[in-house]
Amino acid sequence: MRLTILRTCRAAALALPLMAAPVLLGAAQARPAPESFADLAARLLPGVVNVSSVQTLKAGADNQGPDIPVFPPGSPFEQFFKDFMQRNHPNGGAPPPARRAQALGSGFIIDPSGIVVTNNHVIAGADEITVILQDGTSLKATLIGHDERADLAVLQVHSDKPLTAVPWGDSQKERVGDWVLAIGNPFGLGGSVTAGIVSARGRNIDAGPYDNFIQTDAAINKGNSGGPLFNMDGQVIGINTAIYSPSGGSIGIGFSIPSDMARTVVDQLRKYGHARRGWLGVRIQEVTQDIADSVGLKEATGAMVAGVTEGGPAAKARLRSGDIILKFNGRDIKQMHNLPRIVAETEIGREVPVVVWRGGKQVDLTATVGELPEDIKTASAKTPEQPAAPATVDLSDLGIKLIEITPQTREKYRLAQDAKGVLITAVDGASPAADRGLKAGDVIVEVQQHEVHSPADVRDGVAQARKADRKSVLMLIQTSEGMRWVPISLAANPDRKPG
Q: Which stretches does DSSP call E strand in 231-315?
């Protein structure tokens, strides 16, 4: 059965019952489960709100009735279908008029003056936003600021009396197994309380570049989006955002934005109206074990630089394509997806140490963190750029044929005018190169982190990798889709025939 990550701001159907608390075995001592959450819930409920947003959907491609098939003018079928649409649709089959769609979610008050935090996807595109307090009071809300990358939004409401606010907590202190309480507006039912534990930390669910979710088994359903996740001290340690579900209902796997990250973004939204994040200016890719072996790293760790933005902080710090970032500002980069979040959380304008793996050894650099431009997309390994001019080499052990780039081959393979490197003209379908997805028209830009300008350069780079007893040779490949580092096996294949 296919499981799906769902945003949780819409209403529909029934909620599932809470699972029983798990029994802890072994010698470790655990804090006993509370006899009741009633006192804590009573204190927190007034600080949690329902968020209702209304959006006007104009007539258009997403809001049309059935299309009338196209027939030759004067065809009897043309008149038949026109008559049919007029009989069955009062507006004669024309697109329906604009209509209003409503989304329901949750939120919480962080300041008695009426500052409310929720998810961005709860209010995205809304014409009207209404905040409903626990006592049923409805207050019109205005949007102070929102951030799509972190999926957070800050609202302002005005009340004749101070509102009940809930405090932030430190999500870093929460441990797997700690009790938590989720309060929100599931399926539009109003203030609902569920209990559970912290199931995991640091979850990456591919929802965005800064994934670092708290996972919980406290029941979270559609409509809970933007609602708070509390610790047993009544502090907000997460913002409920998504669920993992095959059906759209809770199966005990929910995800919350950690308060440490959310609080920083919320403060920026209140101060600037938008988030301000640190920016390094690199495009990165995962370091696989094959890549690690090919550059002499003992384990697959860090983030490999696949491209550097011209004029950006990384370029000024002399980072270059092929570097593997092992540490940033004193923090280990264990996995690629850790780097964007760590950079984003770093103070803009701050000089930080960066440790990279280059040429078989660690190199210490210093970078000054910039501010992420609004039009810069998150780090990825897709970057068009690259490939220069004649001579042919057949690397039969890898299964590729190479030629220098000429005006003729540049035109034939539709290469960029500034393309540099060595062109692959053929790939053996049963070769190590084919196993890695290489194909004719790809361009080899670097071998073992050294630029190549001729087929002989590629051949020499492969020979040096063999001499160094590498299991694979690392190549920077420019394809029609972008640039990526590719480790190609150097394992001998006695059954191969020269191609």
A: 236-245, 254-258, 278-279, 282-286, 303-308
